[in-house]
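Minutes, project check-in
Item: structure for the 149-residue chain
Input as provided by the requester:
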Amino acid sequence: MVVCVGFGIDAHYGVCHAHVLENLAALDRDGGYLAAVSIPRDSAEGTAFLDAVAHAQSVTWRHPSVNGQIAAALRGEFGDVQFTDRTRGSRLFVNPLMAVYFTVDLNALAHRLRYRDWIESTHNRWQVSQAIEEYRQTTELRPHRNLPH
């Protein structure tokens, strides 16, 4: 199983969230989309997540994580919620979808991964990133689409 949380956070890196939703729909057609769940803020899991993010931010304050945006969404905050100097000058869009966990079947996802051959021999995130960038230079990318609403 693959679990993804933080929908919308990577927009500033050029991630097209209309494509993310399109890919989830394709995985659903293939039988590989499992579920979307949200963890209630006041549940044991929600409280533990918020505590973990607060702890991580207190000990890694020089390199704050995007988990702060997910925590803000889990607390019900919305819009341009700034929680670190790292995001100063950017416009955030904290929203409830950031706290939703999307789950898919690993094998179904791997089957649809067009750059799988490019990353199979990588060993760290930097190599994965480089391999994906090389792949992107060899293929025609889908045009960016805005969400219609």
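Outcome recorded: The beta strands are 2-4, 33-38, 100-104.
No further action items on this chain.
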